[in-house]
Amino acid sequence: MTNQTTPSLVRAIWRDLTAIGKFPLLLLVLIFATSIGVVLTTYQTRTQITLRDGLLENREKLDSEWRNLILEENALAEHTRVQRIAIKDLDMKRPDSDKEVIVNLK
Fold first, then answer.
1. DSSP 21
2. pTM for the whole thing?
3. pLDDT the model gives residue 56
């Protein structure tokens, strides 16, 4: 029996990479680093797009609600409606022109 061990393939590859193939090893590490960077950038981009879509949808809902409130405000502020409520509910009437008082601001 001999004490000679069979050479390990992994050790042989590692010796070749560290002795001869330093440049290819560096390129391999850079490729892995840039691929991880691409994956992270893609993930962040998709997250931001999803967030933007949600915000745009929220803006559309708020815009629609704002338009409805403007329409409601215009309907409630209509002159004939205000005049009808003033006369009917508050027993108000238009003053005679001789009872009107004009106040001038300085």
1. -
2. 0.52
3. 98
